[in-house]
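$ fold --in a.seq
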Amino acid sequence: MRSPSGSISLERTTLRTTLRSDLLASLVVFLVALPLCVGVAVASGVPPELGLVTGIVGGLVAGLLPGSSLQVSGPAAGLTVLVYEAVQTHGLPVLGVLVLAAGLLQLAMGALRLGRWFRAISVAVVQGMLAGIGLVLVTGQAYGLADLTAPGDALGKLRGLPGLVREVLGSAETLVALAVGAGTVLVLAVWPRVRAVARLVPAPLVAVGLAAGIVGVCELPVARIEVRGLMDALQPPGGTDFARLAEVGVLGTVVAFTLIASAESLFSAAAVDRMHDGARTDYDKELMAQGTGNAVCGVLGALPMTAVIVRSSANVQAGARTKLSRVLHGVWLLVFVVLLPQVLGLIPVAALAGVLVYAGWRLIPWREFAGLWREHRGEAVVLTVTAVAVVLTNLFEGVLLGLLLAVVKSAWETSHVHLEIEEPVGDGEQRDGERWDGGTPAEAPAGAPLRVRVVGNATFLRLPKLLDQLAELPHDRPVVLDLSGLRHLDRACRTALEGWAAEAKCAGRAGADLAGADLAEGVVGK
């Protein structure tokens, strides 16, 4: 029997171990989050300090709230494209209104327990969304690698790539910037292979730190981050900014922020749950935590936040035990911004572009696509169409198109219907339940009734095939069409089948009839 003093000693040892693990994990997450917060902000067209503010709120606010204990929140590359478009269209002061409204909507959805419904979104649509974001990041930040300004629209970025190559080759300064950016991407790709040190020092910090060091020591002529004071960078929304919520375009952006940030956070939570054996995520509480964080970010005029899989996986892999690690990572970001803001001014823009190019490339599911195309071609088509639509239109419209296509695909795949011949059709011969997809049924005595059973889901999507099969039934025999095998009968098929029976009777097939079904729309009786 364990003594009370032994139990207390064991609890203290466990507590010390947990605190040590969370402290070390928080430092790792801080080092991963620092360059990503700055890079996402720059790519979004806002001051870099606003990205750090969102990271701080993600740790100190969302990190304290219940939901998922180990996933980490902050500005995400997945919203970069949408934020950039919003800032360019509506202006930076309106960003706080957009983020605040999105946070309030997330709080409402969490209160209504809608969090679990986000798990019903097609995985192919989510992968397509991330692939589209990745393509936009790669094509857009390719210009940043050379310290050049990217065209405003996606097609312009694609069309401008040949000109980008010519401009880089024709200028020594752009070649130097490209070398810095490409070197950053190379370090990001190679560093994780050195597992002994990669666990201690994350690749983004090494890549950006090396780039800043080399540029500083060699005094290379490349652009660097422009730093302002934290309080100067904040953009709290004013009364006139809230009036913009009456505009349709602004409301559409709010809905896009809400849906995409929520979906990304909850999908991230599901992925993080598979990485550890601790408590599972409460999706509704996590949605409210994200909503609270976004509401605070909106009041401060900062970037929107989501749960970020890169930081979350780093947190789990670093040995985090509780939510303390993610709260402390926010503390370290705050300390850095307050005490060492001048360090940001040493970071080359090309290095941050390299971080985002690498992040965008990893968002594209290159390996999964080949297997998906072989085994689930319809899912691969949904993924591809969603990604292309995101690139050619915008994030919101691309995702809507992907969701629509996924619904159509599911409706098509579930609306299978076929005919089965169940009655005797010859002397001693029984064709019971044999599937029939057209052609001439086996020989049967003249005038013998033919009973044909319709099985599956009879919807308008399969109506042409169903009518073609009915047209091929023998015209010299009465037919009883048994609908008891149908799980669903929509109005289009009901009307068509009633019309078929009426036409068959008029043609002299007196036995043509419908049996075994209540023909009320969508209801099939036994």
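$ fold --in b.seq
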Amino acid sequence: MRPPCGQPPRPPLPTWQHGGVTAATHSSLFPQVPESADAVLDGLDPEQREVAMALHGPVCVLAGAGTGKTRAITHRIAYGVRAGILQPTSVLAVTFTNRAAGEMRGRLRQLGAGGVQTRTFHSAALRQLQYFWPKAVGGDLPRLLERKVQLVAEAAARCRIRLDRNELRDVTSEIEWSKVTQTVPADYPAVVAKTQRDAPRDPAEISQIYAMYEQLKRDRSVIDFEDVLLLTVAILQDRHDIADHVRRQYQHFVVDEYQDVSPLQQRLLDLWLGDRDTLCVVGDASQTIYSFTGATPDHLLNFRTRHPNATVVKLVRDYRSTPQVVHLANGLLGQARGRAAEHRLELVSQREPGPEPVCTEYADEPAEAEGTARRIRDLIAAGVPAGEIAVLYRVNSQSEVYEQALADAGVPYQLRGAERFFERAEVREAGIALRGAARAGGNDSLLDDAEGLPAEVRAVLSTKGWTTEPPTGSGAVRDRWESLAALVRLAEDFEQAKPGATLSDLVAELDERAAAQHAPTVQGVTLASLHSAKGLEWDAVFLAGLNEGMMPITYAKTDEQIEEERRLLYVGVTRARFHLSLSWSLSRSPGGRAARRPSRFLNGLRPGSVALGTRGAAGGGGIERGPGPVAKRGRRGPARCRVCGKTLTDAGEMKLMRCDDCPSDMDEALYERLRDWRAVRAKEIGQPAYCVFTDKTLMAIAEAVPGSAGELAGISGVGARKLDRFGTAVLAICAGETVEEGLGDAVDEV
């Protein structure tokens, strides 16, 4: 365990027999193999020891973040093997990633329990399928399809459905989800409707593609990754002799990360077990963050119901994080709702006190990234290794501004779970398109009606999938849009920093950024999405972009989806050992309207905020304000409906300053005149109507009826540029003047 910066190393903690406990998550590189079975138990805390000695009947280990769950279950297996209670070859331990399986295998070897089968669900099933296929079916096992995307593309083409590359990825993911939830093609539309799942295409179309995909696989005698589980389940169900063979081989089962089991994996586990109950499961319902892939915590939560005689052990001693970090994590879950929240674990830190978590409010996203980079640079200067620092965010497209800020600060970094921003396919394609438009200059018809650099970029990127409004739902289509939107924002910021900049100037800037970020880096600060950070830990963690709309993400609509977003933030918080920083920005770009709000999940956790209906909510940490205009402003209160007083979170409602379903005092006739004017103006400039003003902005204008440029500028959606361009005409219409005759003159003053 590394001491805090500036403090001398602490002596190693003694074992429980001498009044202490050994670290749960750290070990020396080459530990000595315990001399005996009893020696395997040395250094375990009372609850871990109880897990290790519970070798009979069903066992359920509810293990909070940082409580040493892998340590507990590996010592359980090793103790059973070393004591002669378990035969190594009779134990099958399964988890979800090759990395986790490899780590478990290595720990068992260090404990003198080699020979135990430690695999992922798919690896274990494939091994059995390869062995039993000749006997169960005959001949060789069909070829395993490494990448199903090409076959899905062919299936879509045969169904006469056009999919771009990102839609193809999303539809492929939907097929995978359908198979692990045991949903057949014909049932897919109904299941989507019942579960309120956001489908990337019309569910009927996906059902059609799914059915054709399955037909093509049969015609070509190939199977996919999910078929490995499905076929193993089918053989074990149909051939009792083969099921008996497997059950004679494996007498004891251990399942790690049990909260992430899919219905199909649970079915396979049931078949492995038969009528026995020699099962140990380990999990934490509060870390269920992969439900979009078919994972469900229901099997963990229902374990006691299925096995009334089960031994249930709770691990709540947190050896990873300081009391300050644990306090905030407990407070975050204290506000949770739903079934998983009812089973939450209250963690108790076993570490000495550390610094308070820091909440920082910044004026805008670039300021947030730059402030984060400065703090990281200070930590490195204080002795924290760059490899022990992470910046975590909700979506991969957020990485670009942090890549740039760290590069500018001279801090090495590495991306985990995603390509570097400038290496993403859509960003490379956009770069090529922008470079071509820059070369063509005035000869590119795309730019004929575009006025200014941002408008030119939007016009070019609209051919690559960018739209003014983001696509609904998550997945590859949304990821692509986020990447292109980041380029649009970059163009807007670039023009603001360098008025009069051309498209060629922007292309040169992009090339410089790409070159700087492609330079080889040594071990550096980790940039990662919250999902890809699961199972990892760092000395210092920066949770960035914690704004409403990003955390929780905009497309999280149902209560269950919102609670999963809360759990995702909880996972992020519990990755930190010592330093924890949480930040958000009030505006997207410098000089922008400060209309953003910090995540609702921080209510009651950040100083000055109140949590409604909290259960044991935690406080913690001083609040800092990043540099910039925000430091000079007083605290902004939440946006509230001017009719009923309810706090507003939806961007459209915040524009109107009222709830959508609250009574409107809008001048309907004025609204219609504004719409008519907008339609004519949009036609003149060759852009969609919403590029002039959105419907919500027109409604806000019709409700406020501004009488001056200052009043008009105060309406959300009317920026300085639109005020200069359209303000004269809008104010004339609001004043009841007839502007049809001189419409062009009224609105062409730029």
